[in-house]
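Data card: per-record layout.
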Amino acid sequence: MVKKDAAIESKGKPADAQVAEQGFSVGAFLQGTKEELGKVVWPSRQQLISESAAVILMVSLSATLIYLVDRLFGWVSGQVF
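The structure for this 81-residue chain is written out next.
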């Protein structure tokens, strides 16, 4: 037995096609957006600060490593050529 896709309604049309037939509604869009934002688990202030600091630290370390490798290759190529 073959399972049908959850997005296919009993009429045989995908849910996206049915929405396209009905047109775009700004009110429905804003209400859907509000509902989805209500599902978001927002981080605490402390979590936001600590994770932002970790990202800034890792980006800084990566940039420093790339800079040092670039300088090393530049120096080596200067010695060879």
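Known properties of this structure: DSSP finds three helices and no strands in the chain. The longest helix spans residues 45-80.

See the next section for split statistics.
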